[in-house]
Every structure is written in structure tokens, then in C-alpha cells.
Amino acid sequence: MDSFELNKIMGAILGTCLVLLTLNISANALFSPSKPAKQGFAIAVPDGPAEAPGAAPAEPEKPIAAVLAAATVDKGAAAAKKCASCHTFEKGGPNRVGPNLYDVMTRGHAALTNFNYSAAMQALKGHNWNYEELDKFLANPKAMVKGTTMSFAGLNKQSERADVILYLRSLSDNPPPLPQAAAN
Fold it and tell me: Does residue 3 belong to any structural domain of this protein?
């Protein structure tokens, strides 16, 4: 191959590069993208539980005593399976990520000595759980105990929470009396 043929090939390659460079500069001039001040996307996450679009508005909360009257231990045992990945329920059972929940209704806040509670939960130490507190805690643990390490989002339905509370009440050798309205 002589040098003239080599010059033609190199000229074609350089000409192509020049055309591509010109097209790139022209396209950037016509369609200049605006660069954001901060990289990434802002994702808006609501603090409370999300409601499905088109869902009926949430019914107002009833007193826990009235809801407990309609609750059942069997439904509570089924609903408490959501908790079984982090908690155990049997008497003398081991702690997992969360403490054993046997006899939780007669036990004080952060009362197990063989479990490392979060500082937020230890700040509540000193009195036993009651039905209203447990209902609020099961609805949204992070709202009730600010700074808790419990990652559970909560149970939205008050009837489901009442079932779980009644089940937890049944896990005791000496369960506390039900609130007055539920006892009637």
C-alpha cells in the first residue's frame, strides 16, 4: 500500500471524528441540559402510615375498653405471628431481636434484666404496661417511644391491635383485669 492510500484512510478517520465533534457541540448548544444543584432525587416519605389512594378515611379510634370487648384471643394469636420474627411468646422463652413477650401485661417497661433495651424504652422504666399504652405502642411504636430501636411499622387496625392485646393478656399466669367496659 502506498502512502497516498494511507493518507486517504487517515483523512477519512479524522474527517469522521471532526463531523462527530461538530454534531456533539451543535447538539449540546441546542439541547443544553440543566444540571441540578444537588445530585440525586428527593423522595418525600410521610411520617405516618400511608393510606392507599381511594381508600375510605380511617375510622375514629374508639376507647380500648370497648374494642377489647369484641376482640378474640385466637385472632390475636394469628395476628401476633407478625411479631414472631423478633419476639418469643412462651414462658421462659429466649429473647431475640426483641424481648420475650410472655407476661408483658404485668411486667414493667424495660423490666427484663437479660435484654438490652434501647435508651428510649429504658426511660419509661418504672411502671407496668396498661391497655391504652399498649394500644398506642402497637399502633406506631416510633411515635409512642421516640428513639426506640424497634423497626416495626405498627398495626393500623384497632380491632387487630385489640386482638393482639387480648392474646398478650392471655400469656400470663395472673392476667390483669380487663378495663370496665370490656368486662361488661
Answer: no
* Residue range 68-103, pLDDT digits in tens: 888 999 999 999 999 999 999 999 899 999 999 999
Into how many domains does the chain fold?
Answer: 1
The verdict on residue 24 lying in a domain is no
Tell me, yes or no, whether 70 lies in a domain.
Answer: yes
Q: How far apart are CA 77 and CA 88, in angstroms?
A: 12
Question: 23: Cβ–Cβ under 8 A, 6 or more apart, which residues?
Answer: none
Q: Are 159 and 70 in contact (CB under 8 A)?
A: yes
Q: How many CA atoms lie within 13 A of 121 on its CB side?
A: 19
* Domain contains 48: no
Model's pTM, two decimal places? 0.66
Residue 142 CB-half CA count within 13 A: 9
Residue-wise pLDDT for 23-72, tens only, equals 999 998 888 777 778 887 777 777 655 555 555 555 678 888 888 888 99
Residue 69 lies in domain: 64-183
Residue whose cell numbers read 387487630 = 160
- What is the CATH classification number for the domain harbouring 137? 1.10.760.10
Q: Which three cell numbers stand for residue 36?
A: 441540578
Nearest to 165 by CA among 180, 178, 146, 151: 178
